[in-house]
Amino acid sequence: MGIVTPGFQGRPRSGAPNLPPGQYLTPDFPVLSAGPTPKVPRETWEFVISTETGMEYRWSWDEMMALPQETPTVDIHCVTRWSKLGTTWQGVSLDALLDGIDTAADYALAHSYGDYSTNLPLDDLRDGQAWLVHTYDGDDLPAEHGGPARLLVPHLYFWKSAKWVRGIRLMVEDNPGFWETAGYHDYGDPWREQRYQGD
């Protein structure tokens, strides 16, 4: 027979389905940024994956748009406690971008126009878990939400889905990004409430 602690109910939940602990539903799409919104013309936009050996793989806007496109519908969860369910995006799977890249890296550091960065395990960008997205809800992704293109890694807190993304550096050792050096959790799993270092 197991040990039961009378009265223990766990963390309170909103009662909504698929909602991590400590989160509330919002019908809106709040805009949260660390600095000014970069204005990045599609004509000059590019996405670069650099390996730990210095090899670079580049895509222009037109080259990215010519890749196979996917339309994921996913829930997103912000570390500031809002969640939005059933959001629909369009973009390119990171699997397609990483395909054929020879690397021994275990980590990635996403870099954005505007000098934002965030770190992720490379495994979290593979196997249909992450996208480079350019469309939200059927329209071009607005600049305030990371357009022309942002990273979408919906199983982690939304700060890991870097806005205005311009590239990913593959790394053998983990390196914290902008918010992680400010005390946010290195991984950021919303289901485990990994908001800050030590959570």
TrEMBL record:
Residues 1-22 are annotated as: Disordered. InterPro entries: OxRdtase_Mopterin-bd_dom, OxRdtase_Mopterin-bd_sf. Residues 35-179 form the Oxidoreductase molybdopterin-binding domain. PANTHER family: OXIDOREDUCTASE MOLYBDOPTERIN-BINDING DOMAIN-CONTAINING PROTEIN, PROTEIN-METHIONINE-SULFOXIDE REDUCTASE. This is Sulfite oxidase-like oxidoreductase.
